[in-house]
Amino acid sequence: MPGFDDYHHRLSGPVGEGLDPGALDLGAGTDEPDRAAYGFPASGDLLELTDFADFLRFSAELTGFDESELRDTGMAHEHHRTLLAHRVRDEHALVHLWYVGAWPDEPPASPRAHDRGLMWRTFHGAAPGSTAPGHGSWAEAPQDGAGR
After folding, report:
1. Quick one: which of 71, 86, 49 has its CA closest to 118?
2. CB 3.0 to 4.6 Å from 113: which of 33, 86, 108, 141, for a disulfide?
3. Band (124; pLDDT cuts 50, 70, 90)
């Protein structure tokens, strides 16, 4: 299983695996790379992600997780529906949805969306209260709280 450094490297920009930094075409007076060179929709064309397979492929490129890892969250179809429900769509909002489980400035898409967010997977953690404390934890009496 990849560690934090692997994910950090994959998320650190267009120099990641399979991407050629020399292929960036910043154009005259713009800070935007040539998105088509990387298979991304043109800026503002997230409307074209109505096909689930395209959505998943694009999400994998944006998040640094592969398609099977995104499917394993159990949120892929729900996140696709969330994207399609928004009239204004951008890459930052989509990444936020995958990592946090909510569209920016909105509550989580579902009760489990936050718990399944990619932010927890980047450091092999779990959302507080979302998983059992572990095998054998029942063997010790709970603390009485006096030390708090």
Report:
1. 71
2. 108
3. confident
